[in-house]
Amino acid sequence: MADFTVTERNRVRRAPKRGQYDRKTVHAILDEGLICHVAYVIDGQPFVIPTAYWRDGDHVYLHGSAASRTMRAGERGLELSLAVTLLDGIVMARSGFHHSLNYRSVIMYGTATLVSDPVTKEAALDKFMDRVAPGRVAECRPINAQEFKATTVLSLPLDDVSAKVRSGPPIDDEEDYALPVWAGVIPVQQITGTPEPDPRMPDGTPVPDNIANFKF
Length: 216
Fold this sequence. Notes:
Structural class: alpha+beta
CATH superfamily: Electron Transport, Fmn-binding Protein, Chain A
CATH architecture: Roll
Strand content: 35-45%
Order of helices and strands: EHEEEEHEEHHHEEEH
CATH class: Mainly Beta
Number of domains: 1
Helix content: 10-25%
Shape: globular
Mean pLDDT: 94
């Protein structure tokens, strides 16, 4: 897979050695995450919203109510920036100045456009459901016409993008390494608990394997 092209917009400027532009790294981060933050400007007013997303090939998809401001703007083409961040650790240094975080992040830029073809739209929504839990589409009631009409799907090409990764121990001033101060990394993980059944679910409804064994 070819690397993404480095542009003035996606080039990592702060700590550039942490910048990564290969598809393998970018795809892995996007595929592990589930929530992104989307930034855009409408009528001179800046907005940032957290929302679910999913990747399919060289596009990232967003969905929402057809009545929402973001989705309506996307129907006309919405210039935006999308960010995904995964926290891996808290870096404890010997001085407050050098404390940091271990993380993996992706920043995308581009124009989100409406997915108008019904077949492509339905396939994208099915991809999202199976991204949340593989096999979930086959288990659920199919989307009806009213729900389909009320849902908008936007597509953002995976083109103007970069990843930034920080890993490893703290980087202290050389003279501070001899200080009797604990330093290191506190690992951070996102885990899932035991599934909690809906109290209105019929008695005896089995827990499918994709739910019982769900993990991020």
